[in-house]
């Protein structure tokens, strides 16, 4: 560890400001974030209407947080790849597609879990 030196950390408040800035940037520039936030609102409203139990609501919030977090990571990967190369390259495409696949896969799993929560709540 010594050979790498000590890392200087920013103040915690600066880290929060940077994180909020990154979220706002994605919110204003990424269409998929809008879609996912809209879907999240629909899911939350519907869940409240059918009286999903509190424990299941916490699971739903964790799933929503996971999908949106992965979308933010996907956005970061896409921007980093675009920064490194503007040329079409199979490795750049693979990086972008794999990051998008992570969002898709988690979203599919979240939808399956949500189906079971709804089914269990209604029966």
UniProtKB/TrEMBL annotation:
Mn(2+), Zn(2+), Cd(2+) and Co(2+) support activity to lesser extents. InterPro entries: DAGK (IPR000829), DAGK_sf (IPR036945), UDPK (IPR033717). A divalent metal cation binds at residues 30, 78. It holds the Pfam family DAGK_prokar. The active site is at residue 71. One of its GO terms (cellular component) is plasma membrane. The chain crosses the membrane at residues 33-52, 58-77, 98-119. ATP binds at residues 30, 78, 87-89, 96-97. Its cofactor is Mg(2+). Substrate binds at residue 71. PROSITE patterns: DAGK_PROKAR. It is a multi-pass membrane protein. Coiled coil: none annotated. One of its GO terms (molecular function) is ATP binding. It comes from the Bacteria. One of its GO terms (biological process) is phospholipid biosynthetic process. Keywords: ATP-binding, Cell membrane, Kinase, Lipid biosynthesis, Lipid metabolism, Magnesium, Membrane, Metal-binding, Nucleotide-binding, Phospholipid biosynthesis, Phospholipid metabolism, Transferase, Transmembrane, Transmembrane helix. It is found in: Cell membrane. Its main location: membrane. Belongs to the bacterial diacylglycerol kinase family. This is Diacylglycerol kinase. It comes from Sporolactobacillus putidus.
């Amino acid at each position: 560890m010594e050979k790498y030196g000590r890392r200087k950390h920013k103040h915690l408040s600066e880290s929060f400001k940077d994180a909020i800035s990154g979220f706002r940037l994605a919110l204003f520039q990424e269409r998929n974030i809008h879609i996912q936030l809209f879907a999240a609102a629909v899911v939350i409203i519907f869940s409240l209407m059918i009286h999903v139990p509190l424990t299941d609501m916490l699971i739903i919030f964790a799933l929503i947080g996971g999908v949106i977090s992965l979308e933010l990571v996907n956005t970061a990967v896409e921007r980093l790849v675009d920064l490194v190369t503007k040329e079409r390259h199979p490795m750049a495409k693979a990086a972008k597609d794999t990051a998008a696949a992570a969002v898709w896969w988690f979203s599919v799993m979240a939808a399956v879990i949500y189906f079971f929560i709804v089914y269990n709540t209604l029966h």
